[in-house]
Write a structure and sequence with these properties.
Elements lengths: L3 E3 L2 H13 L3 E7 L5 H10 L4 E7 L9 H6 L4 H10 L4 E3 L3 H4 L18 H4 L3 H16 L3 E5 L3 H13 L5 E5 L19 H6 L2 H14 L5 H13 L4 E9 L14 E9 L2 E9 L8
Parallel strand pairs: 1-4, 2-3, 2-5, 3-4, 5-6
Antiparallel strand pairs: 7-8, 8-9
Length: 289
């Protein structure tokens, strides 16, 4: 089956209804476009023999805290559709802003607690925008399963909590972070890095690895673990740390001591490009994920 590109909610619902009549499950990968191999890995995970794979491409204005960031976000629809076609996607939903928000949005979905730290602290309104658009997309596509990357660890935790709290009939499936050969987490924002900042950016993952190594070695003090990561980042003058924190992986709250698995997460500025990354680490375990 060839990949179909649609732009309206009515077209999506018609295609999904037809797929369900054929006994297919609905698999859904929501994206903001500028697709890369990280997205591709989620599509590979979502593709099933008896499944109908839907990918959305929508740069959601209500999750951006800065207008200039929204304006600069890369938009590459033609290339994205070709990317989806090569990955065996059945339906690409690329709505306009007017299709998604035909009138001023007066209803929002908000997850409290999990959004107070990490990105939520520095991007007011961001997660309210994410959970609102994800809820809208779930209502439009009505998927059996939806797929999210572990690189956006806080987003993944927030969406999972939203689905659980609101009893939404969709299973959330996560896919591991996909990295470049030098360790930089794949991101649509990477294409905005100039050559110098691109060369500096892999220090982010090295810093997280340094922190994870301290946890694996038995360090229980979050301050000690954080310092190990910051030393790596401070050695790279082209990078500026917005935050680097050690939190509980499910509740996204800072931990007083490290006795179980933790999430080590950061946001780092490389020039005018904000990059996020995270790893999980467990005491006495050498692996990083």
């Amino acid at each position: 089956m060839s990949t179909q590109l649609v732009h309206t909610i009515a077209e999506v619902r018609e295609a999904v209804a037809s797929a369900r009549r054929q006994g297919l499950t609905i698999e859904f990968v929501p994206t903001m476009g500028a697709l890369h191999e990280g997205h591709g890995s989620l599509m590979d995970l979502a593709r099933r023999p008896q499944g109908f794979l839907v990918v959305s491409i929508f740069v959601n204005p209500i999750q951006f805290d800065r207008p200039d960031d929204y304006e600069r976000y890369p938009r590459t629809l033609e290339a994205d559709v070709e990317f989806c076609r090569a990955r065996g996607v059945d339906l690409v939903f690329a709505p306009s802003i007017e299709e998604m928000y035909p009138q001023p949005q007066r209803t929002f979905v908000e997850v409290t607690g999990l959004t107070e730290h990490l990105c939520g602290r520095f991007r007011p309104g961001h997660f309210r925008g994410v959970t609102t658009v994800v809820t809208k997309l779930f209502g439009i596509v009505q998927p059996d399963r939806a797929y999210f990357g572990e690189k956006d660890a806080q987003q993944l935790a927030v969406v999972r909590r939203m689905v659980r709290d609101l009893n939404l009939p969709v299973e959330i499936v996560s896919g591991p972070t996909v990295r470049e050969a030098d360790g930089l987490a794949m991101s649509s924002r990477n294409r905005r890095l100039d050559p110098e900042h691109r060369r500096a950016a892999p220090a982010i993952y090295r810093a997280l690895q340094a922190a994870a190594a301290r946890v694996a070695a038995g360090a229980e003090d979050p301050g000690e673990v954080r310092s190990a990561a910051l030393r790596v980042l401070e050695a790279e003058p082209l990078l500026r740390v917005e935050y680097l924190e050690i939190v509980d992986p499910e509740e996204i709250q800072p931990v007083a001591g490290i006795t179980d698995e933790v999430l080590i997460a950061c946001a780092v500025w490389a020039g005018n490009v904000r990059l996020i990354d995270s790893v999980r680490a467990r005491p006495g375990r050498g692996e990083v994920r």
